[in-house]
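We close this part of the discussion by returning to an individual protein. Part of our work consisted of pairing the sequence of a single chain with a tokenised description of its backbone. No coordinates are needed to read the tokens, only the vocabulary itself. The amino acid sequence and the backbone structure tokens for this protein are reproduced below:
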Amino acid sequence: MIRHRPFGSGHPYSEDTEQRRPALPLAGEPLALGVRTSAEIESVELELVVTDAGGVESAETIALGRVPRSSRGQLVDGGHLASAQARLARAAGGWATTIAAPPAGSRLRYRFTGRDAAGRAQRTRWFAAAPASWRAAPDELVRVLGRDRLVPGSVRLLADGERVHRARFELPLEAGEHVTGFGERFDALDHRGRSLDAVVFEQYKSQGAERKTYLPMPFAHVVGGAGWGFHVRTSRRSWYDLGESRADRLVVEVEVDAADAPAGSAQEPVVELAVYDGAPAEVLGAFLDEVGRPEELPDWVFRLWASGNEWNTQAEVMRQLDLHREHDVPVGSVVIEAWSDERTFTAFRDARYEVHADGSPHRLADFEFPAEGAWPDPKGMVDELHARGIRVHLWQIPLMKLRPHPEGQAKADAEAAIREGVLLREPDGRGGLRPYRNRGWWFPLSLMPDLADPRAARWWTEKRRYLVEELGIDGFKTDGGEHAWGRELVSLDGSRGDEANNRFPVAYAAAYGELLRSAGKAPVTFSRAGFTGSQAHGAFWAGDENSTWEAFRWSMFAGLSSAASGILYWGWDLAGFSGPVPGAELYLRATAASVFVPIMQYHSEFNHHRAPSRDRTPWNIAEQSGDERVLPVFRELAQLRERLVPYLAAEARESIRSSVPLMRPVYFDHPGLETAWTHPLQWFLGRELFVSPVVTEGESRHEVALPPGEWVDAWSGDPVAGDRVFEVEVPIDRVPVYVRAAAWPALREVFAG
């Protein structure tokens, strides 16, 4: 075997051994060309043919050297759920060489030949590329809608003579302006002085350190001066230098795909930039007018959500919810993740049924649930939970597993999906297309439906209709929306991956929302991945993270930046979901903060049922920490959350009306207030509450930067003057919360208990 893929796996942050690096050659710059081979190959050479701008052709043969094997951005070992890929990689070798890319205007063709010890040859097909270079371009090639803030003469294009691949332009930054937004961001509220990009990516844990996100947007606020913001109208990847290279410039670079016009001839704009003037709420409102506004969800979404990945039987789900009742901890939703057969993601594990060879949907009556199985009576379970006032959500993944080799209904569904033409596709190396096989670490080589296509989305969601209409499921955890990798993917509408991949998670949530809506239910989806347009589709959580104080702070930044970008219904796995359980202090401080974010929920990662349990239930944390405060304090906070639900629901409706986020950074109300940036992890919750959570270990006194106004301490009822910084005592059962004085009579009982 010898393999070269010019664009690699499509991993946006790391390059693979067998790809062209960079994928788009830059004239005169180093160009690495590599392959992966099977173990018998002992030498590899490159045949390179270059045709210059005048049509003169030259050829040479270059020997490749061995290099460390890597794939999907990882070395042989490591990475999220990477063991299967690592085993495959151990039998493959890496080879590469580096050349200088020829000048702009030239073309190159190349192929590789590998030989074994006996001299037997294996060859790749021929590949072609055209080196590109940057050049100045007229300002008019960036179409600006709104006030034109483009720095004159700053537009540049990266082009190869046939296509324009990227555009770059500059916007001014004034002294004292802060740049914030960009979707869900974990590392900071103000990104001035840094660089970042916008591409959907699964960063398994450490999102703040890695500065990568599941839910980016090419949208930002510029706060502190006159007030403005912008939206790069693209679904392709974009990059932002926010005063890092030059303090008074904001540099935008964006992937494009346009014909390259000859020098001196007219060319159509290649980028659209919407510019909005005004206060943050006005900027956000104008953006939401473009991309879609949040839809009001039922009040019950504001109650406590509970889940654990090891709640993988009916008995365990009911045991845990019985414990909530026993400990007087009110819960509004349960998310059941490990419910399915892990093959079809439509049938409960252990259910018996006849395979539908044509891939058609099942109904509830088609299933038999054995008494000794994991889920002996799922309908009875859902009915019982509904009787207790608890909503039920099931976990989903937008993939069809092909490893291990599918059998039964999974096999029939895969064959039907191919036959019905509902899948994303990729080039097959012979000039045609084949079904795309997932390149991510999670469920590798799975098939992926094109949920942006209405017919394909219906085909997929109809298989789940019985869960909603007959079983009574209230929503879906729409996990894993970040698995469309590769610029060369082909959607059913003909669009390529560089344009369509970021849109996939938006379509994914929308498809499940439409299923729920068509069954007469609210479109409650719970997603971690998204992009521009996600605002209109369900709720979101911040993804996978460890139980650390640092991750706690990262998640709070994520919530505030999401809110500033128009995500209304947002939460996180309070105190983290992965690894060792949090200590009592972290758990209770995180719970206290979570009372005052739009979605309050806890969750835990699968740990193979090893002892001690890693469930994030308060009784498990109490048992493992030995801290007798955990259960009573958690109970008190959960009951406070229950009393807050009417306020949260009313303020969510106001947020939809006004474009002022429910959970919002201080700068939304006070864009000129310096403490909005010196104390970034404080926020308003609706119009009447101000929250200053404890996010640092060991704090007994906490510094509050209270905004202007007249306030009341929510716990003591004492009046407090605003527009000042002061310290307060913070016992473990309290989070500093202040109520506007005018609203205190209406909210007094919420905090009195």
